[in-house]
Amino acid sequence: MEFINGVFLILPLGFVLVFEVLKRLNGLYYALKLGKKWGELPPGDLSWPLLGSTLSFLKSFTVGPPESFIRAFTTRYGKVDMYKTHIFGRASIIVCKPEICRQVLIDETKFVPGYPASMKTLFGRKSLHRVSKVEHRKLRRVTTAPISGHAALEMYIEHIEHTVISGLEEWSSVEKPLKLLTEIKELTFKIIWNIFMGSTSIDYTTKEMEALYNDISLGFFSLPINFPGFYFHKSLKARKRLHEILLSIVNEKRLMKKSKGESWEAQDMMDLMIEVEDEDGEGMDNETIADLIFGKLFAGQETSAFTTMWAIIFLTDHPHLFQKAKEEQEDILSRRPSTQKSINFAEFKQMKFLSQVIDETLRLSGITFATFREATTDVNINGKLIPKGWKVILWLRELYMDEELHPSPQDFNPSRWDNFISNPGAFTPFGLGVRMCPGRDLAKLEISIFLHYFLLNYKIERYNPQCQLTYLPIPYPKDKCLARVLKTA
């Protein structure tokens, strides 16, 4: 018995010893690699070899709360601008200061996109997340106008309106509760699909496509292990299937363009990508088009759907803000000519408070918790070194919940944006610089039209208002906002 008790005492001590030795070895490896530069790094902990702080991150974002991940650094090293760590398989610098975030985002000569290996693989070789600065500028020039130009946005209003009105009417006619997030994601997918590929004759159900996107998103922040039973393996299979679907659509459209000859006319974004040529008369290949469409579909659908759901939840939880937002929409209706039956672009620009509701939702919900870059050279900022080749993680969640940057950060307060002058880089939900999201105006238009009709005519009754949250890859209630949609007018 003494021997057994001794074993049970030694095993935990041995584990702790091995853990500490491995941590020190990992730190020693990078210290030897960097030499004198090691002392110039920000404070922090590289933790285990290979895994680093990834397990701590996953624990914080699955068991919760997410804030505990950064809190571990601030508790141990104090609240500073940057921390060093090892996460997602790479040595990294975590940035928690708005001015540095802005510097990293706008300086393409020193910092390039540096997303985790799992995310880069799933987005594809030709996605805007991975291509070089020169190629990004070229692709962005081709793809921005169809989704962010004034004329394009006006053209999409009718389709968005029709889809939203039909969806809300259908949901309110169902007596049993719905998983509101699931329904909104299907609705936003219909909208984005029509904008990007509306002229295709190939028929795939939105539920099938939605299932593929859900499987892919599970692997974004998973360990990149392509083996049955791991999220990444399941995500790769879904990515392959979706890529095949997109390629088949590209092929169909190319054949249609060839058969119609000069009578061919682009009707959606994929059509525009097929017909565009560079200065040398070269067009985009099928893989590039498929990867670009995939990235834009994912960003356009996911961001809009989750933001819409959270805006509904926040407004429902704050009746006085719901009423204020509703009165703004009623005022817009009261000034509308009797001959006008639908929203126009000028009215969308008048929705000041609703725009603030969307911004506050993006801040408080933590939909984008971080942005990823990689240093192309040694960079010294505020006396601290970011080594060449290290990942740079802009921890947006920490910025958005910083009391000094956003007073009472836990409160949902859209009016905080009244004449608000923010520190540069303190609020960047769509990024900054040349890689700022080109679809930000389309996303806001889509969300605004949905909330316009919801506020005027509907409300929700949640079944589990205190439901726990899932935080990866995007925060949402575990019951997916189980609720009834009720018509009020």
TrEMBL record:
<feature type="binding site" description="axial binding residue">
    <location>
        <position position="437"/>
    </location>
    <ligand>
        <name>heme</name>
    </ligand>
</feature>
<keyword id="KW-0472">Membrane</keyword>
<dbReference type="InterPro" id="IPR036396">
    <property type="entry name" value="Cyt_P450_sf"/>
</dbReference>
<keyword id="KW-0349">Heme</keyword>
<keyword id="KW-1133">Transmembrane helix</keyword>
<dbReference type="GO" id="GO:0005506">
    <property type="term" value="F:iron ion binding"/>
</dbReference>
<dbReference type="GO" id="GO:0016125">
    <property type="term" value="P:sterol metabolic process"/>
</dbReference>
<dbReference type="GO" id="GO:0016132">
    <property type="term" value="P:brassinosteroid biosynthetic process"/>
</dbReference>
<protein>
    <submittedName>
        <fullName>Beta-amyrin 11-oxidase-like</fullName>
    </submittedName>
</protein>
<dbReference type="Pfam" id="PF00067">
    <property type="entry name" value="p450"/>
</dbReference>
<keyword id="KW-0560">Oxidoreductase</keyword>
<keyword id="KW-0408">Iron</keyword>
<dbReference type="GO" id="GO:0020037">
    <property type="term" value="F:heme binding"/>
</dbReference>
<dbReference type="InterPro" id="IPR017972">
    <property type="entry name" value="Cyt_P450_CS"/>
</dbReference>
<keyword id="KW-0812">Transmembrane</keyword>
<keyword id="KW-0479">Metal-binding</keyword>
<dbReference type="InterPro" id="IPR002401">
    <property type="entry name" value="Cyt_P450_E_grp-I"/>
</dbReference>
<keyword id="KW-0503">Monooxygenase</keyword>
<dbReference type="GO" id="GO:0016020">
    <property type="term" value="C:membrane"/>
</dbReference>
<dbReference type="GO" id="GO:0051777">
    <property type="term" value="F:ent-kaurenoic acid monooxygenase activity"/>
</dbReference>
<comment type="similarity">
    <text>Belongs to the cytochrome P450 family.</text>
</comment>
<dbReference type="GO" id="GO:0010268">
    <property type="term" value="P:brassinosteroid homeostasis"/>
</dbReference>
<dbReference type="GO" id="GO:0005783">
    <property type="term" value="C:endoplasmic reticulum"/>
</dbReference>
<dbReference type="InterPro" id="IPR001128">
    <property type="entry name" value="Cyt_P450"/>
</dbReference>
